[in-house]
Amino acid sequence: MENLTLAERNLLYALRDFTRFRKQFSVDTAAAYYRVLQSQG
Prior knowledge:
about 40 residues; mainly alpha; 1 helix
């Protein structure tokens, strides 16, 4: 039972990290896109 609990906890941590990465990646991509638009204007 302990191994399953540990695996579930690790899965939740991995999901949390992936969600954080996905949000940050979206923000970084949008910021880069707007910088390109500004440099052309």
